[in-house]
Amino acid sequence: MKPGTFAAFVAPSVVLMILFIAGPLVSVLVQSFYVTRQVFETTTVENCTPGFLAPVCTTEARSRPKQKPGGGVETETVFVGFEAYRLLLQPDAVAAAFAPGGGGFERLLTIDFYKALRFTLTFTLITLPLVIGLGLAIALAVDAAAKRLRGVLIFASLLPFIITPVIGALAIRWLFIGDGILTAALEAILQRDIALFAEGWTIEILMLFYRVWHVAPFAFVVFYAALQTVDQDTLESAIIDGASRTERLRYVVIPHLMPLIVFVALIHLMDSYRVFEEVIGFSSQAHRISLQWLTFSFLMPDETGNRSISRASASSMLTMVGIIILLIPLLMRTWRDHRRKR
Amino acid sequence: MADTRTLAPPLALKLTIAAFLTVWVVVALFPLLWITVMSFRAPVDALAANPWTVLIGPATRRLSGGISPLALIIWLAVPVLAYRVAVRHGALAAGLMTPRWLGWIAATLIYSVLLAAMVWLAVPAFVRILEGVAGAIPGVSVLAEPWIGLTLDHYRAVWIQHEFYQNFFNSMIVTFGVVLISLTVGTLAGYGLARSGSNLAFWLLVIALVFRALPHSVLVTGYVPAFLGSRELLEPLWQAPVIGWFLSLFSPNAPSLYGQPLAIIIVLVSINQPFTIWMMRSFFQNIPSELDEAARVDGCSHFGAFVRVIMPVMWPGVITTGLFSFLLAYNDYLVTALLLDAQSQTMVPAISSFLNRDTRASDQIEAIAAAVSITAPLFLLVMVFQKQIVSGLTQGAVKG
Asked: Structurally, how many domains does chain B consist of?
């Protein structure tokens, strides 16, 4: 294909990606060094209260938002360097936390950014083996099930995957919240009062459960499709060699699935690093927040209607650094494959 | 197979597998089924601690009537049967007319009318007759008595009183816009990338991969100030000599993009683009390049070959990619919550307004009814397109 034709085919897509992905990225980077704020001016106000003989007057200096000539509040955008990052990372507080008697990690995790980072990372790492394990187990089980049942099983498994994430999280929350049906069942079994939404760690377990429930079907479908292409000759020779069921799984099936396990793991790392909907669905912001939610909360207007764009930009940039670190191994592998092919 | 007996699992393993699969199916379906049941019950029943109360709904029956098990079974069977009939005989009915697409339209119309008549007239009558017959037989009569509570109040409140249909329309506009545009753009790019082995194509794909991994909040942070200040940003375009005249045909002043579903479409299409081109590329790689090369030997241009030879065979890939675009647009919360206002909100972010309105007991059940309403189209989607979804998931994986 000639370069010109190639360009014609990809142009619309490339233009969209430059305008709406690369463009915003650059603007976020720039925004993170600037802050837009209201201009305040100091005025002296004289307040007089009626008094005997002469009114009692006090003068005080007040600062108030400067009004624009045409109405509205005047704003200015100033370069602040790494101020937004500093506000987010709070190096002073970190230093104080690790100073003797500062409280160490416990103190550190009260700062929003580290709280979000901690949750995002543990969330990603804990769900990863669970998703792969459960996905593989379902795939092997469905593969062993009767042919007539497989369609129904796949249909039932696809539902948790296809459902709107916020709605899926809500569905699970409604089963547990207050005296929800499953909380009541747990209380009956354990013979004690349970309030799952009062503490951070119980909510976190529910969030982990939701994510595994939501993503395991994806792993299942990928593994199941690959199971159909396992080399039957190798399996047969393994049987002739007297390999037991577990040995066949260990030495024939798993190696065959290995590239796909890596693939699912990578996709899962990327996706669960973006954890966000769980925080909304379980309303966990008082206890557990994620990096994406942190940015989201800066972007939502606060009580006065202001959005802290500058801080949102800084936290976006830091989130991005994380995803790039996650991606480096994948990119290096792709590059090696590409070079080998040429 | 040499020896099928050694391959057949022993009984203990079989039982373990069966038990495991049963548990999984229950876990997979229970949350969704349970909230569906809850949405049809009065708050007292829906929030009861006893599962039996939720399933039967005694208070609901006292308040707003009930339905007999027989009728319930029939009403649940109707959509399944309707779907079966459509799948089995649809193609045949459509084939009765030429051209075929006209046949499809006619068949769909006639089928809808028939179905509506069935649902409004025939099925209720059938249910009543059956209930009458079953009620007369001792032993079976328990099936004909309306002892399962059922109420549609919450759905009525959500869709009529709280005007959820507006959110539904917004969702439809956004979703169909996204699917249409991202398929058009993505198909062209995917074809180009699949047929070009150049370094440039490789780097484009790598950059797209990085873009795909970006958290959406990063991009939205870039959009929010631009959207809020879009009137000032776009004003110079409207003042420009030729372009300004052209643009003023559509609106006299520069529009504010914030709160515009149409602006959201472009944003979601772009966010979706990296994924779309990867997926379409892997589909096109499966179409042998000899096919379009043959067309080119016969004197077609690249674009001509694409239209004449590739387009007729690419539909499975397009449908699958379209499904995933649909899901992305339909399920989005982050982008739509930040860039749309209350009037132009799509369904998913609109549900938070139901969650926040938590003063009466029925508010919670209304939120559940809204959630079930959002899930229903997805349920249909899986039912109709199960094969395509599975092939899409594995396609990306195999080529990944």
From this structure: 2
